[in-house]
Amino acid sequence: MLSGLANTSKGVAALGRSSALSLVPQLTVEFGYPGYLLWMYTVLIWTQNGTKQEFLAFFFFLSQLPSSSSRGIVFQLERDSSTLQYMIKINQETPLIAVKQVVDLGGKLPWLFCHKDAYNSSSIRPVKCTSALCSLASKPVNCTCITKNTCSIYTSNPITQSVGRGELMSDLVTVLSNEDSNVTMGTPVASFRRYAFGCATTANISSGLAKGANGVAGLGRSSALSFVTQFAVGFRFSRIFALDLHDNINDDKLNQTRGKIYFGGGPYIHYLYGYEDWADRVLSYTPLLINPKCKEEYFIDVKSIKVHGETVPIDKKLLSINKKTGIGGTKIDIQIPYTTLQTSIYKAYMKAYTGWVERYNNANAEVLDFTNITMVTPVAPFSACYNSSTIPLLTSFDSAPPGVAFMFPKSVWNISLYDLVRVKDGIDCVGFVDGGSKPKTSIVIGARQIGFLEFDISRSRLGFEQPNIKDLEF
Question: pTM of the prediction?
Answer without folding.
Answer: 0.82
